Amino acid sequence: MKQLAITSALALLLASTGVQAQDNTPSDNPELSEGAELLNRGFQLLLEGLANEIEPLAEEWSDGWADMVEKFGDMQTYHPPEVLPNGDIIIRRRTPLDPAGPGETDI
Question: Which key words are in the record (predicted)?
Answer without folding.
Answer: Signal
